Amino acid sequence: MEYCQDWRYASLRSFLFTGDLYGADFCYRELPRRLDIFDSEAFAASPIRFWAVCSDIDTGESVYRECKDASDDDLTWIRAGASMPLVSRIVSIEGRHLLDGGITDSIPVKAFARLGYPHSIVILTQPEGYRKEPTKLLGLMKLRYRKYPELIKAMAERHIRYNETLDHILALEKAGEILVIRPEHPLDTKAPEHDRAKLKAVYRHGRETGEAWLRRIRSFLAEGR
User: What are phi and psi of 66, to 5 degrees?
Assistant: First the structure.
């Protein structure tokens, strides 16, 4: 909340001056390295594995990257996974051209099952019954990314894959194979959100929901072992 009204964090001004609606230098260097220092040592020491999901705009396929120590490279991968099309610069790293992982794999439950995690806890940002509609920005996408036909194809089909994944999650949930946590109602926020009261309310809702689910989470994980 402290920086939500800072133009360097997220604003039209940031987009016009830097090419990123969410200022890449501010969000992925200034904040974690100087203003609100990220505890890289604790991150590296944690036994929990952390993965970033990105979309390769040359191939239209998902890329999964494990981030181990919150290095500058790790932060670049995390930035790539959060770089929304049209309002973010393409992120180039290790010979790849990347954007938001949600384009190709919004809810990577199948990917993590393939990686060896059969007992997943899935945290959704939409209530039960939500269905994604086709994007209304496909025309702009075709104009902006005309050199990347596989990206255009992925965006055109995104809602189909997303809704298929929701059906898959629901089936696994009914079978008791995964645990799914959802908000009870749509979250009253937008991107970007500059209203501190709304941000605090959503944070409080998430925290209270997490606390209410703790017993079920522990039980589910114990059964998985």
Answer: -80, 130
Q: Are 93 and 77 in contact (CB under 8 A)?
A: yes
The residue ranges of DSSP E strands in 79-152, in sequence order, are: 91-93, 96-100, 121-123
First to last CA, the chain: 38
pTM of this prediction? 0.92
List the pLDDT tens digit at each of the 225 positions of the chain.
999 999 999 999 999 999 999 999 999 999 999 999 999 999 999 999 999 999 999 999 999 999 999 999 999 999 999 999 999 999 999 999 999 999 999 999 999 999 998 789 999 999 999 999 999 999 999 999 999 999 999 999 999 999 999 999 999 999 999 999 998 888 888 889 999 999 999 999 999 999 999 999 999 988 865
Q: How far apart (Å, rounded) are the C-alpha atoms in residues 153 and 146?
A: 11
Is the preceding omega at residue 118 within 30 degrees of 0, hence cis? Answer: no
